[in-house]
Specification:
Length: 557
Amino acid sequence: MDMSVWFLVGAVLVFFMQCGFAMVETGFTRAKNAGNIIMKNLMDFCIGTVVFMFLGYGIMNSENYFFGVIGMPDYQLFTDFYGFNWSNFFFQLVFCATAATIVSGAMAERTKFLSYCIYSAVISAVVYPIEAGWVWNGQGWLANLGFVDFAGSTVIHMVGGIAALIGAIILGPRIGKYTKKSDGTVEVHAIPGHSLTLGALGCFILWFCWYGFNGAAASDPAQMAWILGNTTIAPAAATVACMIFTWVKSGKPDVSMCLNASLAGLVAITAPCATVDALGAFIIGIVAGILVVLVVELLDFKLHIDDPVGAVGVHCANGIWGTVADGLFNTESGLFYGGGFAHLGVQILGFASVALYTAIVMTVVFKVIKATVGLRVSAEEEIMGLDVTEHGLTSAYADFLPSAPGVLGSETLSGPVDVTGLEPTKLSPSTVTVEGEAPKMTKVSIICNEERFGILRDTMAAIGVTGMTVSNVMGCGEQLGKTGQYRGVEMSMNLFPKIQVDIVVSKVSPGLVVAAAQKALYTGHTGDGKIFVYNVENAVKVRTGEIDYDALQDQRR
């Protein structure tokens, strides 16, 4: 097998990870920011390509490498196009873009787009290239010490995770995430993402692409098979461990945490994927699956650092764990395989040095951005959503606006209930027409379950109602919608999709409308709905100018 071709195929898979990251971040955040997140994931690769081409690659891979710390850019990609090592350039470029995109998730939903572009460029220009050169340039000081990070647990994931952590701290939490109570304690509120389906799709894409991420640099088919095996065992073990852990801890297996656990296992096995055996990969995965839950909850409940997608728990914590794990489970030099503490010490020194460098540089970068162009959007912009305020995009889902079931042919229960001999519900005298007075107009507003709408619609037609306004709404009753949990946080209220039907009547008795609606909607279960009755003072027909009772008559009410 030509491993040079596989090297490039693996690099292409790493590029496709941008899609996975975009789907995870979009799914785990709110719909009003979806376009902004997609734009950021697009631009961090595009901006990263430009700055990596002109500066980053030379700093990282130059043969003129000074003191094992930094290279002198030689720009051979411009001066010697046909002799330039394009395979290595493309390979390092897609890895650089991965480090930059990790930061986006922890700072989602409240970061200025301009600020994102700036710090993403800095990561690709100097942060990733310098520390990656220490490890992956043959002249790098960590490489010469024997530091092992085969595919980037430290070089990429920990670096991205630390930048994400620092950014989230300086940026502050999203509005409504934490509230301080009168007794001084802080209450944590869940802010669910708008599409768990998108998040799951992103996780599956990332797992698939990780076979290129870890396996691209394999030296031969045998080693590649070994790497791919470990890259399957660790995330699988992590996900099972997370499922059991959250099930025992909270009484239910946590879906979004398990998705994070899959990624945590992949991050943890990235450094030692070519140096540990199956048992080592299995144990590394189990620890990763539990570690990600503990870190996510530590940030949320104790430190009150808002990380919408769990980027710090997945990438920072498990990037560190994967790097240390090589010092424990490396089959040639690991502590548990008779290698003593020497290699473990190098691994600890390596991640600590890279972490310190990243923390210092990114703290300076974020502070400078905050003091100049500003890091965070205004409260008004955050509430409105970054799609409209940062990009002029009304909605990322403009062609998928909700429509009421049964109106556009959706499959719902239908057909009127029997209204023969139905007695009108007795209502307040103020809503009922009195003989000799001008006919009253009454608005009946009905909140019901989606699946009963077709029956309600047909029943209203059966009693003579020919006009109604139907809206999709969200709501719950006094049971608060079986609140449950989201990522370990108790939800104070859970809103479910409902249908609101507004009917204005004058000729048809509002009491009959209410009685018919009650009969159509009744199932005997919690959540059947509610009916509200209002007086209507005036009505005006736009086309003719007719008012009140006359304005309604062409609707035969």
